[in-house]
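Long-time lurker, finally posting.

We've been working with D-methionine transport system ATP-binding protein (Propionicimonas paludicola) and I want a structural starting point before designing mutants. I don't trust myself to interpret raw outputs, so I'm hoping someone here can both generate the structure tokens and explain anything notable. Sequence follows.
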Amino acid sequence: MIALHDLKKVYRQAGRDIPALDGVTLAVPSDSVHAVVGQSGAGKSTLVRCIALLDRPTSGTVEIDGVELTAVRATELRKARRRLGVVFQNANLFDSRTIIGNVAYPLELAGVGRAQRTAKAKELLGLVGLAEAGGAFPAQLSGGQRQRVGIARALATDPDVLLCDEPTSALDPATTSEILDLIAALKARLGLAVVVITHEMTVVKRIADSVSLLEAGKVIESGPLEQAVARFGSRLSETLLALPATSGLPQAGITIEVLDQTGPAEVPALTSVGRQLGVDLPIVAGVVEHLGEATFGRYRAVVPSALDPGEVLTQLRQRGAQAELSQAVAGVAR
Ligand SMILES: Nc1ncnc2c1ncn2[C@@H]1O[C@H](COP(=O)(O)OP(=O)(O)OP(=O)(O)O)[C@@H](O)[C@H]1O
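Top reply, 14 upvotes:
Generated this for you. Predicted structure of D-methionine transport system ATP-binding protein:
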């Protein structure tokens, strides 16, 4: 378990204070993945540096399994860092070292003997599916394979926490899927608390158990993934269930927005309301995502002019869906 409590980082630049982190509190239990998302400048890199102890927070604490890392003396820092493995966007491998040499590097720093660290590196390479690649050099591997090496190296000191900083941003979609599957499998196998910093919503949907949205150094939304998505109209819900733009489509009637959560094989509320009222409610944009046990559907649909949209909203809500007139109709620019 990793816990951040009221973490603040203020940079001073040209006589001005820049609050890069403004009181971040988070707890990530073992055997779970927490994603932190946010736009450029939100404070994601600062958060990574403070968690990884590469930078000291101005105030607040970082705790792993009850041990306060932020309280350790400078001389103990290297040892404290072993509780935490870091995976970077680019694996940052040493080109002149073999793959085994790269994975064993943190153990070399920790003073572990050659035979023991080689054995550990081999074991870890097996774990990340690269048992045969130990004698190769980084230039001989693909980007995805290099990232696997980066993950193996992050696990060399048997950390409790894996911190992944944009782990798939440099990879193509198929390799991204493989790496995310690997992180999820390692989390379960090793009982890791995983923190993933990312700007990619596919990463969140694929592996996160919980998610936080960082903005201007503050966590403005946070919670278990399914709850965050179910919060109709929230930023996380709208970003994770992003609808394509529909401007320019002919729409004879009033547009409504619907967020529906269904179990397997359940009929979406919009379908059953249309059937009940004997009308078509054309969907002009929609997205369906399976997250954990739930299926979420977000739709923008047109209520024909002959029908009272209020009645449609009521019927949808009676079936458990969340529904509103779309903001464009309500007069708010989108
Ligand atoms: N060393 C520094 N000195 C001064 N200001 C800094 C420093 N590092 C970051 N900042 C400022 O802190 C804020 C957060 O920056 P940070 O790099 O953490 O954001 P980010 O979410 O990682 O953005 P990006 O995705 O673009 O890297 C920004 O306003 C940035 O300008």
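Before you design anything, note these points.
The chain has two domains: 2-231, 241-330.
The radius of gyration is 24 Å.
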